[in-house]
Design goal:
single chain; 239 residues; alpha+beta; Arc Repressor Mutant, subunit A; Alpha-Beta Plaits; four-stranded antiparallel β-sheet; 8 helices
Length: 239
């Protein structure tokens, strides 16, 4: 698979740290998942997962607490979960996940971000079939063989285990996310470099220098939108 998840995460975190945008996005997501179930991560697996992700991005505790308290307080602020699919230059494909309290605004903003940067939105299902929902969990201090042994002893099946720089990255089916983490925690591993549920492209494409520059500008425009939570694509951007 070789997506170099740590490099991707570091670039994203460095970019987001300049605006604190990532904290706002996590605050919204935590609020939504806390409202959908219990505002207690031990009773709400979706919330527990979101908090695990937030931890890997060093989201401050006060952001998390404020979002959970807002959910507990019975706020009537409602968000819709939306997915958009589209195309960039030379066969590139993009999936955009959003949380919004104004569907028309978000659809217009996403369409504009595509259109102004050489892309176009597609219909539902036009892109997603080329991606696989995947859990990605990374850790340091272990070899791939040691990680495999831990998972085998816990009887947890995964898709792949890759050594990447100084980390080991585990790819698994989404429904195995918590089982993988529990196996690691039972082995005394509680810190993770990556803890994501993502959409992984079945095949990556490589763009020319000019096309890649245009594509990256489009991705930046999409990620800059307030309502957009995640952007997935099939372009190999290198390191």
């Amino acid at each position: 698979m070789g997506r170099k998840w740590n490099n991707i995460k570091e670039k994203k975190a460095a970019k987001d740290a300049n605006t604190s945008r990532i904290y706002a996005k996590f605050g919204r997501e935590i609020y939504v998942v806390a409202r959908q179930g219990e505002p207690d991560p031990e009773a709400n697996q979706a919330l527990k997962f979101t908090l695990e992700r937030a931890k890997t991005y060093n989201v401050p505790k006060h952001i998390i607490d404020r979002a959970i308290e807002k959910a507990k307080g019975g706020s009537d602020e409602n968000y819709d979960e939306l997915r958009y699919e589209g195309f960039g230059p030379n066969g590139s494909m993009v999936i955009v996940d959003a949380l919004t309290n104004n569907v028309n605004r978000t659809a217009a903003d996403v369409r504009a971000a595509f259109g102004k940067n050489g892309g176009n939105m597609g219909v539902s299902g036009s892109v997603a079939y080329m991606f696989d929902a995947t859990a990605v969990i990374g850790l340091e201090g272990k070899t791939a063989d040691e990680v495999l042994e831990i998972l085998m002893e816990a009887d947890v099946d995964v898709r792949d285990i890759i050594e990447e720089d100084e980390s080991v990255i585990v790819y698994a089916d989404p429904d195995q996310f918590h089982a993988v983490q529990e196996a690691f925690k039972n082995a005394g591993i509680t810190e993770f470099t990556v803890a994501e549920q993502t959409m992984l492209a079945q095949n990556d494409v490589t763009l020319s220098e000019d096309a890649q520059a245009k594509f990256e500008k489009m991705i930046d425009a999409l990620e800059d939108l307030e309502d957009v939570q995640q952007v997935y694509h099939n372009v190999d951007l290198g390191e």
